[in-house]
Amino acid sequence: MNLRLPAKGVAEHFNLPVKGDSPEPLAAFFAGKVEIINEDRACRPSPPTLQPDKDPNRIRVDFAFACAEPVGENVGIYLYFFNEFGPNHSILATIRRGQTVKEFVFTQKRTDFQLAPGLLAQAASFLLLGAEHIFTGYDHILFLVGLLVIWRGAMNIVKIVTSFTVAHSITLILAALSVVTLPSRLVESVIALSIAYVGIENILVKEILGRWRVAFLFGLMHGFGFAEVLRAMGLPSRGLVLSLLSFNVGVEIGQLAIVAVCFPLLYYASRQAYATALVRGVSAAIFLMGVTWFIQRAFLGV
Q1: How high is the mean pLDDT in each 10-residue block of the chain (302 residues)?
Q2: Alpha-carbon radius of gyration of the chain
Q3: Domain boundary residue among 69, 90, 116?
Q4: CA-based torsion, 226, 3, 43, 96: positive or negative
Q5: How far is CA 151 from the centre of its chain?
Q6: Residue 26: CB partners within 8 Å, gap ≥ 6?
Q7: Where are the alpha helices (DSSP H) in 150-274?
Q8: With CB atoms counted within 10 Å of each terminal CB, which end of the chain scores lower, N or C?
Q9: What is the span of the domain harbouring residue 173?
Q10: Is 7 in the same domain as 77?
Q11: Based on the domain organization, do 193 and 259 belong to the same domain?
């Protein structure tokens, strides 16, 4: 099997060389970081080797294992990178067994790979990755909450969510396929500005109309943000369209879950005497958070 990783990120994170005459320290780092369990017995690993990747910004690490028993349908593959890289890190692996080639997204919560399921397992892994990303993408959540915090009825929520979905789906696919690309720093900075904008608009504008237009406009930029996850990980060569659609469906499932939680709370709050004060307080917090993120991303590179 082999893993495709961002070469510069790995080198900088661990202060290890990637290019030049001495790649051994980086290869040595990966020793013991992958384990394969077959029939409850660990397979014997060979030293990992580094190979050039078709993407010059990535490095390919090849692993080979010898198992005492014939490899069955269910093989446990465990990656021990996540303690170093963090729980939100994900890795796209290409796994070869004879003439069979599979691709799988590993995360801290999904380290058990099964050889049999094929494209369906790959699609499921991307769907879960999309759902996890929206739940841990606090900037996307805050933008959505900022759009919805002023209650304008159920139909208004439908329009906002639909516009946001259509917009980020368009740019997610275009950016993931490298049809249209924007610098990551610019994307993340504009996303922060979108959060600050909806926060201050909630406070200063008396009659907010056509919120779905704001959702669509900024949703385009949020789609580029979603695509960064896939581009940083590396897209699979097999089942590419299915993987993209699955990731997007996962994002939508997470988004709908958030809206489902917010809907009754927003409705209840809108009928209370303190509704206006609550909206202003929440919006002020959203504005300040957006400004903070913008400063960090635009000027500090955080």
Answers
A1: 71 59 64 84 88 76 86 74 68 72 75 65 85 90 94 91 94 91 94 97 88 95 90 73 90 93 93 94 97 95 76
A2: 22
A3: 116
A4: positive
A5: 30
A6: 10, 11, 14, 16, 17, 18, 50, 59
A7: 154-176, 184-204, 211-233, 240-270
A8: C
A9: 129-300
A10: yes
A11: yes
